[in-house]
Amino acid sequence: MSAQYPPCPKCKSTLTYDFNDGFACPECGYEWEHSKDIVEPDTIEKTRSIKDSNGIELHDGDSVVVIKDLPVKGFSKNIKAGTKVKNIRLTDGDHNIDCKIEGFGAMALKSEFVKKA
Predict the structure, then answer these.
(1) Pairing between β-strand 114-116 and β-strand 64-66 as defined by DSSP bridges
(2) Whole-model pTM?
(3) What are the percentages of helix, strand and coil residues in the chain, rounded to 5?
(4) What Rg do the C-alpha atoms of the chain give, in angstroms?
């Protein structure tokens, strides 16, 4: 008979296990302590703030507009200023927006080159 551990507060997986002084999730890698109150992962992610060229905060699912022509490696044409990009996804790193652009496919953009639509 195996021990029952609480589900992961980040991804809700039931495959959690005892790890050091807390619990760990093998699916998403999240770790939390036994004795502390659980901090909801949504709260942790909201501390990350990604802003567009005008300083307006962006969120997953927003639509943005490219503000200048952007060269694309491997393509003979640029992404033109004024191109609307729907349903963005925010990521960590230098290029902090993942999206799909018609005619180009999946792309990573920097938030400094877009404005919220």
Answers:
(1) antiparallel
(2) 0.59
(3) 5, 30, 65
(4) 19
Give the torsion through C-alpha atoms of 64, 68, 73, 75, to 10 deg: 90
Question: Quick check: is 93 in a domain?
Answer: yes
CA 75 from chain centre, in angstroms, equals 26
Q: What residue type is 54 in one-letter code?
A: N
Question: Residue with structure tokens 């490219």?
Answer: 66
Provide the CATH number for the domain around residue 83.
2.30.30.40
> Domain span at residue 22?
7-46
Q: What is the pLDDT of residues 4-19, one digit of tens each?
A: 788 888 888 888 888 8
Structural domains of the chain, count? 2
Residue 59 amino acid letter? H
